[in-house]
UniProtKB/TrEMBL annotation:
Lineage: Bacteria, Pseudomonadati, Bacteroidota, Flavobacteriia, Flavobacteriales
Protein name stated in the entry: Alpha-ketoglutarate decarboxylase
Length: 149
């Protein structure tokens, strides 16, 4: 067996996604990722992220976010996963009133997820969250949903 094929036997591909629709709000996000399993309990990898948000409330806006992250996953028991993820996103927010925003935003998440088969779901907390500066979220606590194959 070659070293290259042995490497890819330990790689899982997948990621997360989100679709949200409200009366004045819609969002779509896709985060494909690849995780290398160093053991049955520990894996680490890279993820890319794209998010589209359409807000029709008081200030009509369209937001595009894109970037990447580095993540580590630890499973102390087969049904529980602890995650750490550093994310860096470029945010382009376009208002119809011409007050456009373009900036980078960092996040450092610590999460706890329930795992069943190839699916994990839970919550993650952004320790870098700043309520005044954050464009991507209104809370430091966010849901997380991942699928890996």
């Amino acid at each position: 067996m070659s070293n290259k094929s042995a490497f890819f036997e330990n790689v899982r591909f997948g990621g997360g996604f989100n679709i949200g629709v409200g009366s004045n709000y819609s969002t779509f996000s896709l985060s494909p990722s690849a995780i290398y399993d160093f053991s049955d309990k520990f894996g680490a990898g890279l993820s890319m992220t794209y998010v589209y948000v359409k807000n029709k409330s008081i200030q009509n806006s369209t937001t595009n976010l894109y970037g990447g992250s580095i993540l580590a996953l630890f499973k102390p028991v087969y049904y529980l996963q602890i995650s750490t993820e550093y994310e860096n996103l470029k945010i382009n927010q376009n208002y119809y009133s011409a007050n456009n925003i373009s900036q980078w935003q960092n996040a450092l998440y610590f999460g706890l997820e329930y795992v069943t088969g190839n699916i994990s779901m839970g919550l993650r907390y952004d320790v870098l969250f700043d309520k005044v500066k954050s464009i991507t979220s209104s809370s430091a606590l966010n849901p997380v949903f991942r699928i890996y194959f």
